[in-house]
Amino acid sequence: MNRLLLLGLLCGLAVVLVKSANPHDAFVEDNDFAEFEEFDEEEGTVITEEAVKQPDASQPQREAEAEPADAGFEDEEEEDGIIESEDDEFEHLQDEEEFENFDKEKGSSPKTKGGEKLPDLQMAKVPLHLRTNWDSFYLEMLMIAGLGVYFLNFLAGKTKNSRLATAWLSAHKDLLEANFAIVGDDGTGKEPNQGVLMKESENIYALWCSGRSCVEGMLVELKLLKRQDLVNVLLRVLKPAADQIVVNVTMEDKKMDKFVFAVALKKAAARLHKDMYDLGQFTEKKNVDKYDLPPSYQILSETGEATLAILDKKVCQVLTKFDGLIEYIHLSDQFSGPKSTEDTQPTKLPTVKPCLIFCFTVPGKGKSRPADMESMRPLLQLVFYITEKVSRFQLSREARLKGEKRRQKVEEQFMKAAHSQRQEAAQLRREEKIRADKERLMAEEDPDKARKLEERENRREMKRKQPKMKMMKIN
Amino acid sequence: MSTVPAPVNNNDVRRPNKITRYKAQSTGGPLDDPTPEYMNLLGMVFSMCGLMMKLKWSAWVAVYCSFISFANSRTSEDTKQMLSSFMLSISAVVMSYLQSPQPMMPPW
What we know:
- The structure holds 2 protein chains of 2 kinds.
- By secondary structure, chain A is an alpha+beta fold.
- Chain A has helices at about 1-20, 30-55, 60-80, 80-95, 100-115, 130, 140-180, 230-240, 265-275, 275-280, 305-310, 315-320, 370-375, 375-390, 395-445, 445-475, and strands spanning about 180-185, 200, 205-210, 215-225, 245-250, 260-265, 285, 295-300, 325-335, 355-360.
- Chain A has a domain at about 140-405.
- Chain B has helices spanning about 30, 35-50, 55-70, 80-100.
- The radius of gyration of chain B is 24 Å and the shape is rod-shaped.
- In chain B, about 30% of the residues are buried.
- At the A-B interface, helix 7, strand 2, strand 3, strand 4 and helix 14 of A face helix 3 of B.
């Protein structure tokens, strides 16, 4: 609409200019027409230039409207009578009283229309929603669509994970209730809760069970895939992964004999041996040939006796049957978690607990269904079986003594390293203190300086004297 | 060695008098997966870039980062932090469009 108005205005202007070029209506000669002709050409060129400068669909319209104007002028040339009548017709356009700012129009139009130079165009300030198309915002639409897709995937992934977790719980609930007095405590409230599957994040669920002989408690962590994160989903297309279930059985103190043992898939074994403090300190890689195990497994053991006791026929059968689903079994009386990644040696010995850790992979390689959870029941039964075995297992006297010696050695090594570090730290502190004293002395005035020097010297003397006195006393 | 296949048949191993309450582990969290923290930080960095340098794409990336951070967050984490990062990224987008309402130009 605005464009049409503009066009109308321009045409009106053009007509006005024609009239201004010819102030006397009666004056009709070829020169005038020649003028008109020139003017027509100029007008034509100016109009087309304007059309070029404002590139939109109205261009053909302008040109079309310019053409009838031109045609009109040509008619004027040919027929005098018509010209006169047309002059009369356009007389009202020259009437000053008719138009407001008439002079201004006259004055400004030659500027814009006359001359060879290009007119100085001022773009009208058209509001944005009239000017731009929504199509030009296609990138923004893409972004919003992407966010929408992410959100939808979040909801879908969250629901799927939740369904898998509840499927696992419902499949194993009776077995757990037969073994524990409390299944599903979340630590809140005065009384222990029952049946609470804690949601640690959208893909990690935890279940705490307690109240069993020889066992302090059992924490089952369902480490499902991040189905709620689209980025992770796309990464898994390139690198498939699977859901994991980690069962951590904390034994009561003194209910587990002193040994460290692990059987794991080769990759996992290498990683555990490197990362886990206790496995790195106490175990060595052992051969699986002696045992009826699939070749994909690796044994890390401290004593052969423990290995023999744990890897009995039944356990080997289960390991063979569920080859690939059992990631690792880590039994340790010195479990303290992974090695510290910090460079500095910790000054305190890490707290150790007797733990049995089982890591199972859910079948389906990422595309698990709730029904797959049912097939993992035998693995939980294996957990209880091994728990019972460990609680009853007793090392022979020699093996136990060796184990104790080894643990003492490790502790001493640790204390030495910690002690040397503490000594270094103390030395550094002493040096810094001396330096600070010196600096303070330098800043002080003379009498004070002297006093302080005296004090320090006295102190040093006392220190030097004291140990000697002690030695004499002992002697 | 006893060869009992299943846990117990005749003896009940449950000990209702030996119940230990669950203690939430707080230190294990950051070690496992630092994604939500990184994404939170990235989101804030991109929002600031978008606001200061008037870069629309930076503001949009910030929105994505805060979404990813939210999706990966743990329930134990403070929601206020997540929400503030999200609000910052939204404000970055809105401010960039208010300052220059033209659509984003693709790099090609």
